[in-house]
Structure formats: structure tokens, C-alpha cells
Amino acid sequence: MSGRHWNKRSLLNLFEMPLFEVVHRAYVVHKKHFNPVEMEYCSLLNIKTGGCPEDCSYCPQSVHYKTELKPEKLFDHEKVIECAKEAKKNGAKRFCMGAAWRSPPKKGFEQVLELVQAVKSLGLETCVTLGLLNASQASDLKEAGLDYYNHNIDTSEQFYPSIIKTRTYQDRLDTIKNVIDSGINVCCGGILGLGETRDDRIDMLLQLKKFPEAPKSIPINKLIPLKGTPLEKMEELDHFEFIKTIAITRIMFPQSMIRLSAGREQMSDEFQAWCFMSGANSIFIGDVLLTAPNPSAQKDCELMNKLGLKPPLK
Ligand code: SAM
Ligand code: DTB
Ligand code: SF4
């Protein structure tokens, strides 16, 4: 399957198949490469909130939109380490730190390098998402022991300028190249429900396939239409189209971890279960994502128990 040649036609064929057929194919691929009852838990912390000069239409942290968010300075080192310890106690395998920057400023970047080393020494995998990176920043992060860098392409190249005007798709691809060249694992995916077409979803998946190697981790976010952002009133994407896209991602990327990222708080148990059956095998745990609510630990624990899913044994 993985050696198959992917193009618009072959992906459209999959999208046009009956839902059960696509989900069945995805589950077969999933079972071949993973233990289907295992769910990876990652934890997320916004270490620098708001005041971001970018204009991503979905994001409450952009200075371009009047949202309810209060900008904050970079978190204190000790406070971050406390959160990382708590995340480990709750079963997280990876601790991901996000900062609302276009690209990391010098002093903040040095502090992040120290945080990466400290979090890693707790026995957690590390991930950061800091915006655009040059080659030297990527290699400094590698040296500090960073395991993953999250940088999403979000949608198709064609649709991208309708969502973000302050940077180009190519800026994003350049950063991903710097991350790959430095030897850090790539965490790269997108958002569904931005108002994109099926064709855009296909192009986004084809773009992920063009990387020299498949991203080890693929976050699929469901748009959370946040108050004050231009996408606040966006009509919700059809649930089955969302599920099909997850299933097709699994078929195309048999060995990648697929994270059902933003949007779980707004989804029913059944909707999430369909996504897990279609190959999503990773989630963020904890009450908040970066700024938006995420299901509580108790709610997630109940859902995992009902579905018979559990974190992998260490
Ligand atoms: N500033 C960094 C950047 O843009 O790469 C890191 C943080 S950014 C918030 C990480 C990702 O979160 C975005 O690429 C997008 O996919 C996702 N995201 C942000 N706001 C979202 C929303 N309202 N709903 C769903 N996903 C969202
Ligand atoms: C990703 O793809 N999703 C996470 C993580 N990478 C950094 C972020 C989701 C953010 C959802 C909106 C918010 O919390 O502000
Ligand atoms: Fe800034 Fe990232 Fe939000 Fe875009 S998504 S406005 S780059 S924090």
C-alpha cells in the first residue's frame, strides 16, 4: 500500500468510495502496523500566549483579531517544569510546548533550549512549535535534544492565502525542510473545516506525501471556530467527510502517528470513536489545548475505558 503512487485521481477515488469501505481499508492498514487498542497521549502547554504578529484566520492569538485572550510573557522555567511533571504523572509520553511567535526571538529561543533539555531529563519526549525556523535554529534545537518540531501546512497551497496573508506556504515548507535537515522528527498536519474544498484536502495530503520522508506524527485538527476570529461563524464540516479524511490519511501514511488534535471537546464520543477506528491513534490530554478547552482527564479516561483503548506499555 505505502509504495503506491498517490495522485489526485487515486485520492479522489478513495473519497468517492462508500464510507464503510474506506474506513474498513484504513482499519486493515492500521491493524497491520499498530496495536489498534493503543492510544498515544501527548500533553500541550502554551508557554507564550497571544500577541502574535501573524494573521492566521483561525487563531485567537493573532494581534490582528479582537479576541477575549490576554497576551502573556514567556512562562517561567519552573512553572513549565511543574506542568511537564504533572503531564508525565497523567500518562503523557510527549510534552509539547507552543509559543505564539512568527519566529523565535533570540532571548526567548535560548530559554526554550533550556526548557527542552530540562523536560527531556524528566524522561519525556519533547516537542515544540515556535513558528518559522532557520537552519541554525533547527540545529540548535536538535543539539538541545528536541525530538519533534510541530509545524503544520494546515491546508492546500491554493487555499492557504485565503487563510493566512502574513506568510507564504513556501515559508512553511522552508521551515519543514530545515527541521528535516537537522534530524528532528517532523510533526506536520493541518486543519479541516476552514471552508476548504475536498480538492484542497486532497492537495494537502499530497503535499505531506511529497516530503522526503513521511511525517512521523500527523496532527489533524478540527476547526474550533473561536470568538473574534474571522472563522468564528464558519459552517461545520460534515462529520463523515472529516472521518473519511482521517481514514485516507491512515491509508496513505500507514506508519505515522495520526493525532486527533483540536476539536475533540466539541465532538461526541461516537464521532471520536469513528476517528479512532479510521486510524487516529494519538490525542492531546489535559483540560486546555493552547487556549481552547479540551476534554478533562476524567472524561477521556471514561471514553478510553468504554472503547477499550489504553496508552502503550512503556
Ligand atoms: N505559532 C505556531 C505555528 O503557527 O506554527 C504554533 C502554534 S499554532 C496555534 C499550531 C496549530 O494549531 C496551527 O497550525 C493549527 O493547525 C492549529 N490551530 C490553531 N488554532 C486552531 C483552531 N481554532 N482550531 C483548530 N486548530 C487550530
Ligand atoms: C496542532 O496541530 N494542534 C495543537 C498543536 N499542534 C500545537 C494546537 C491546537 C490549538 C487549538 C486552538 C487553541 O487552543 O487555541
Ligand atoms: Fe501565530 Fe501560530 Fe496563531 Fe498563526 S497559528 S497567529 S502563527 S500563534
Q: Could you write a compact summary of the structure shown?
A:
This protein has 314 residues and is of the alpha/beta class. It has helices at 8-16, 19-33, 77-89, 106-120, 135-144, 160-163, 169-182, 198-210, 239-252, 269-277, 297-307, and strands at 40-48, 94-99, 125-129, 148-150, 185-187, 190-192, 217-222, 257-260, 282-285. The protein contains 11 helices and 9 strands.
Q: Could you walk me through the main structural features you see in this protein, from its secondary elements to its overall organization?
A:
With about 325 residues, the chain is an alpha/beta fold. It has one domain (about 10-305): TIM Barrel (Alpha-Beta Barrel). Helices cover about 40% and strands about 15% of the residues. It contains eleven helices and nine strands. A nine-stranded parallel sheet has the order 5-4-3-2-1-9-8-7-6. Strand 1, helix 3 (about 75-90) and strand 2 (about 95-100) form a beta-alpha-beta unit. Helix 3 runs parallel beside helix 4, helix 5 (about 135-145) packs across helix 7 and helix 9 (about 240-250) packs parallel to helix 10 (about 270-275). The protein is globular. The mean pLDDT is about 95. Bound molecules: S-adenosylmethionine, 6-(5-methyl-2-OXO-imidazolidin-4-yl)-hexanoic acid (DTB) and iron/sulfur cluster (SF4).
